[in-house]
Amino acid sequence: MAAAMETDQFPCVLTVQVPFPTARLASVALQSLQVDKELPPASDANTTGDQDKTLHVEYRATTNRMLRVAVNSFMESLNLVIEVMEHLDADVLAAEAHST
Q1: Mean pLDDT computed over 52-74
Q2: Are the C-beta atoms of 61 and 10 separated by less than 8 Å?
Q3: What is the CATH architecture of 2-99?
């Protein structure tokens, strides 16, 4: 019953899966991007990481517009996290050194 009410409250859903080179980088991205608990009632997000080096994000919103705004904001934040990883993270620098 609770799942049905949640689906009714947030009928627009999008799941995004972002692969990373290592599980540690996926975990860093997860910690950086996790949504604060003070979400407005118009949207909800669930972010998880797992051992297969993939960041899983599920967005739920009351309207497609709210979903688009939330996902666009997430993508901008994800881009920033990845840029910082490219410049500062030891795993990324090591992977680049091995590929050249």
Answers
A1: 92
A2: yes
A3: 2-Layer Sandwich (3.30)
